[in-house]
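FYI - complex with zinc ion, inputs then prediction.
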Amino acid sequence: MNFVILGAPGSGKGTQASRFAEKRNLHHISTGDLLRDAVARKTPLGKQVADTLASGQLVPDSIVLELIREALSQPGNKTAYDGWILDGYPRTTSQAEALELVLGDIGENLDAVILLDIDPEIIVARLSNRRTCSKCKAVYNLLNKPPRKEGVCDQCGGALVQREDDTSGTIRKRLDVYRAQTLPIIDFYDDGSRLLKVDGSRPIDEVTEAIERLVSE
Ligand SMILES: [Zn+2]
């Protein structure tokens, strides 16, 4: 089966996608990883991505979509996995429409869309309590994964800092963008059977179980 997973920044989307992928032997296609990988492999598309990022601009939809098409069309991936899960794409309705065209083109079907539904205030609380090690980049959370010693990394002793985009003002702006751009996609996919809504505010393990239950129904 093939999936898309949707969720606001801080909803735990990446974690749930990789757990689900492992459990069901799915190819986990995260657009962030695809972009980093293309840059690292210095493919023609990767060079375009590197140039775009270096100029401080957003990577155009057409390039991201092309990378997704490549990943989905590789014969090796088709035999190694029992399906795929897309994480980080689509983020807008026009991207969702473009994805349908590409899938039709390469003979793939999107079977279900998993939506991690979560109260924005919970996300603000989660993300504004996130701390990152300035040396080894380990991630902590003052709410549920605090360091043993306040302000100090357990692993390397580095100083823990709050990333610029984890301050509550920035988080609220990112959530506003998510609401404006991504929420319309939910209508797009809500055609009676494909959309699976999961309460994303529960503990990580419970969310994982809820996804598994919904998909198995
Ligand atoms: Zn560290």
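Residues 2-118+169-216 form a domain with the Rossmann fold fold (CATH 3.40.50.300). The chain has a mean pLDDT of 91.
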